[in-house]
Write a structure and sequence with these properties.
The complex is a heterodimer of chains A (168) and B (454). Chain A is mainly α and 168 residues long. Chain A is built from 9 helices and 1 strand. In chain A, helix 2 crosses helix 4. Chain B is mostly beta strands and 454 residues long. Helix content of chain B is 9%, strand content 35%. The longest helix of chain B is centred in the N-terminal third of the chain and has 17 residues. The radius of gyration of chain B is 23 Å and the shape is globular. The N terminus of chain B is likely disordered. The chains are: A mainly alpha (168), B mainly beta (454). Chains A and B meet through helix 1, helix 2, helix 4, helix 5 and strand 1 of A and helix 1, strand 1, helix 2 and helix 3 of B. Strand 1 of chain A pairs antiparallel with strand 1 of chain B, so a sheet runs across the interface.
Chain lengths: 168, 454
C-alpha cells in the first residue's frame, strides 16, 4: 500500500467511525478539550500502525483499547495541546430534555459518572454505552473479567450511594 | 435483605438512568472537523518532535507513550519503526560489552534541601512582545524557510529540505538539520550542502556540537560532528524491561543530554540512569532519573517518577559531581532547557499536572508558555503568556544565550509567529517578522521558525 492509498484507506475508515469515536472519547473524559486531544492522539497512533491495525481486521476493538489506555495514562494528561477557539474537532450541543430522570437527576448522575476513577468510568462506559460484554470489556481494559465485575460493581455502588445522598 | 446491586438491570432505575445519561451525553457530541487529516498531521508532528533535538523529549515520550501492557498489540509510537542503516553511513562499529561501574558508594552529605513552590503567583517581570519591523538581531541561530540564520551569516539549505524541522549546531561549521522528510536527519556543511543523511529517531546534541546521539527503539548511536558513527549502546544492555514484558519490548535507553563525551540517559521506566562515555565506552550508573543536564555547570534537573502517581510535580536541581541536591521546586512547570551558561531554566507552564491537578479552578493554566527560573535560587523571574485582548499569543519556543536575553518565537491569536529577543525585564525587540504557520487554525500546524537547540 503506497502512502496515498494508506491515507485514503485510513481516511475512509475514520469517516465511517468518527461520530462513534468522538462520543466514546467524550464519555471517557467528560470534557471537550480532553476528548479532542484523546481522539487525535489515539487516531494519530492508529495511523502510524495502520497496516497492522488493518491486518488485525478489528480496527474498532484496537482503537477502543488504545483510547481507553490513553485516557487512563496520567502521562498523556500532563501535556495537552488545547485547540484554538476556531479549531475544535468536537461540537457538544445542549443535551436534550430528559425522558426518564428529571433534569437535575440527569445532571447529578452525569457528574457522578465523571467523578468515578478512570478505570471504573471506562468500565461503565464500555458496558452501558458501548454495550460490550464483560469479556469484551476485559479485553479492552486489559484486565480479567473478575476485575471488570469489580470495577463495575464498585462504580454502580458509588453512583447509587451518591444519588441516594442527592435525593435525601 | 437483598443486595440492591442485584436488581435486574432491565428494571433497576439506576441502570436505566445511567444508560439514558450516557446515550444523551454521547448523542450531544458531533465531530465537526476533518478528523482523519488532523490525526495524520498529529502523527507527523509527533514523529518530528521525536526527531527534533529538544530537551523536553523525555517528558513528551512519557506523555504520549502507550502503557507498557499495551505493547504486545500496539508497539509504542516511540519505538515502532525499525531503522535500517543508511547507505550513506558507515556500518556500526563492534561494541564491546563494557561493564557498568557501580555508582559512588559515598553517600552525599545529608543537608536540608530547600523546597520551593511555583504557585502561579505573578512573576517579577512579564514578557512584552514588540510589534512592527525587525529592530535587532540574535546570536541564537535559527532556521526559517530553508535558510539558517547564524548572526550575520545566512546559509541556504540545498536539496529536499522544505517545511518543518529542527536545527542544531555541530562542530566544524556543520549543522544537523531535520527538515522535510519525517524521521530523517541531515548533516550539512557550512555551505548548506548535505553531507550525510541519517534515518533515526530522537536526536540529542552536545552543547559544544562535537557529538550527537540518535535514539532508536531504545538503542543509542553516537556520532561525531561529521556524522560518522562513533559507538553504539544497544537497548538489550539496558536491563530495564518491566516485569511481565518480553525482552523484545524493552524500552531501552532514553537520552537526556550530553556533557562533553558523556551521554546521560535514563533506563526505561526505572528511576536511575547511565552515564556513557562515547570516547571510551565506559558506563557508570547514575542514581537519578533525569530530565535535563547542563554542560556549563555540570548540573541536572531530576525527573518525576513516571511510575508513581503524584498530585504534585516536583523537580530537583542536582550537582552531578557531588550528587548534592541544591533545591527542589514543585509546581506546574515542564522544563525544556537550560540557558547556555546554566544560569536559568526555561519551562512551559501550559501544563496540567496529573488529573488536571495543577490547573486553576477555572481549568486555566497557572503559567503561560514561557517561564524563566533562576537556577541559583529557583525563583521565577519572567513569565510570558498570551493575551487575547492585545492579540499577542503565547511563546511557543525559546532559547536563552549567555548574554541574559531570551530569543522567543511568539505567537499571535491570528496564527502567525514572530521571532523576538527579550531581556529578563520583559522588554522585547523584533528579530524576524511575523510569518504564518502552515496551518494557522489548528495546534498541529508547523511553526515557521526553528531555533537551534544548542
Amino acid at each position: 500500500m503506497d502512502d496515498a492509498d494508506r491515507r485514503d484507506d485510513f481516511t475512509a475508515w475514520v469517516r465511517s467511525r468518527e461520530q462513534a469515536l468522538g462520543r466514546l472519547a467524550y464519555l471517557l473524559t467528560g470534557d471537550r478539550d480532553a476528548a479532542e486531544d484523546l481522539l487525535q492522539n489515539s487516531l494519530a497512533k492508529v495511523y502510524r500502525h495502520w497496516e497492522r491495525v488493518r491486518a488485525a481486521e478489528v480496527p474498532d476493538a484496537y482503537v477502543r483499547r488504545l483510547m481507553v489506555n490513553e485516557s487512563n495514562s496520567r502521562w498523556r494528561r500532563l501535556l495537552r495541546r488545547p485547540e484554538s477557539p476556531g479549531s475544535h474537532v468536537l461540537e457538544v450541543v445542549a443535551p436534550p430534555a430528559p425522558t426518564g430522570l428529571d433534569a437535575s437527576e440527569t445532571l447529578d448522575l452525569w457528574r457522578h459518572v465523571q467523578a468515578l476513577p478512570t478505570q471504573q468510568r471506562a468500565a461503565v462506559v464500555l458496558r452501558y454505552y458501548e454495550d460490550l460484554t464483560e469479556a469484551q470489556t476485559a479485553d479492552v481494559l486489559g484486565c480479567s473479567v473478575g476485575t471488570v465485575k469489580s470495577h463495575t460493581s464498585r462504580a454502580i455502588s458509588a453512583l447509587r450511594t451518591r444519588m441516594s445522598e442527592v435525593t435525601a | 435483605m437483598s443486595d440492591p446491586n442485584r436488581t435486574p438491570e432491565s428494571t433497576d432505575p439506576l441502570f436505566l438512568g445511567l444508560r439514558q445519561v450516557l446515550d444523551d451525553r454521547g448523542g450531544d457530541v458531533r465531530v465537526v472537523a476533518d478528523l482523519a487529516e488532523r490525526a495524520i498531521r498529529r502523527d507527523t508532528q509527533m514523529r518530528r518532535r521525536r526527531t527534533a533535538a529538544v530537551g523536553v523529549a523525555a517528558a513528551l515520550v512519557l506523555a504520549v507513550g502507550v502503557p507498557v501492557g499495551w505493547a504486545a498489540l500496539a508497539p509504542t509510537p516511540d519505538r515502532t519503526v525499525p531503522v535500517a542503516p543508511s547507505t550513506t553511513m558507515p556500518t556500526d562499529l563492534p561494541t564491546p560489552s563494557a561493564p557498568v561501574t557501580p555508582p559512588r558508594t559515598t553517600p552525599p552529605t545529608p543537608t536540608s534541601t530547600p523546597t520551593l513552590t511555583a504557585d502561579g503567583s505573578p512573576a517579577p517581570a512579564t514578557l512584552r512582545p514588540a510589534t512592527g519591523n525587525p529592530t535587532t538581531t540574535t546570536d541564537e541561530p535559527y532556521l526559517v524557510e530553508g535558510v539558517i540564520h547564524d548572526g550575520a551569516t545566512q546559509i541556504a539549505l540545498r536539496g529536499k529540505l522544505a517545511a518543518g524541522g529542527s536545527l542544531a549546531r555541530l562542530a566544524g561549521g556543520r549543522w544537523l538539520v531535520a527538515q522535510g522528510e519525517t524521521g530523517v536527519l541531515y548533516v550539512v556543511d557550512s555551505t548548506g550542502a548535505t553531507k550525510v543523511r541519517l534515518d533515526g529517531g530522537r536526536v540529542t546534541v552536545a552543547a559544544d556540537g562535537t557529538h550527537f546521539v540518535v535514539e532508536t527503539l531504545g538503542t543509542l548511536r553516537a556520532y561525531d560532528a561529521s556524522g560518522a558513527l562513533v559507538r553504539t549502546l544497544r537497548a538489550s544492555t539496558c536491563d530495564c524491561t518491566p516485569t511481565g514484558t518480553s525482552d523484545a519490548d524493552t524500552p531501552g535507553y532514553e537520552v537526556v543530554g550530553i556533557i562533553g563525551s558523556v551521554v546521560h540517559a535514563n533506563r526505561g521506566y526505572r528511576m536511575d540512569g547511565v552515564a556513557w562515555d562515547v570516547s571510551t565506552d565506559a558506563r557508570r550508573s547514575v542514581g537519578h532519573r533525569l530530565a535535563l543536564v547542563d554542560a556549563a555547570t555540570g548540573t541536572a534537573l531530576t525527573a518525576q517518577d513516571p511510575n508513581v502517581p503524584s498530585a504534585r510535580t516536583c523537580h530537583e536541581l542536582l550537582d552531578l559531581a557531588t550528587d548534592r541536591v541544591r533545591w527542589r521546586l514543585c509546581g506546574p512547570l515542564l522544563f525544556r532547557s537550560f540557558s547556555s551558561d546554566g544560569g536559568y531554566l526555561l519551562a512551559t507552564g501550559q501544563f496540567e499536572g496529573p488529573d488536571g491537578s495543577e490547573l486553576n479552578p477555572d481549568r486555566s493554566f497557572k503559567y503561560g508558555g514561557l517561564v524563566v527560573v533562576r537556577t541559583s535560587d529557583a525563583a521565577v523571574v519572567l513569565e510570558g503568556r498570551g493575551d487575547e485582548a492585545t492579540g499577542v499569543g503565547s511563546p511557543v519556543s525559546y532559547r536563552m544565550g549567555s548574554d541574559g536575553t531570551v530569543t522567543v518565537q511568539v505567537g499571535s491569536t491570528a496564527g502567525t509567529r514572530s521571532l523576538q529577543r527579550c531581556t529578563l525585564d520583559g522588554s522585547c525587540e523584533v528579530v524576524a517578522p511575523r510569518r504564518p504557520r502552515d496551518q494557522v487554525d489548528i495546534p498541529d500546524g508547523e511553526d515557521p521558525y526553528f531555533l537551534s537547540v544548542n
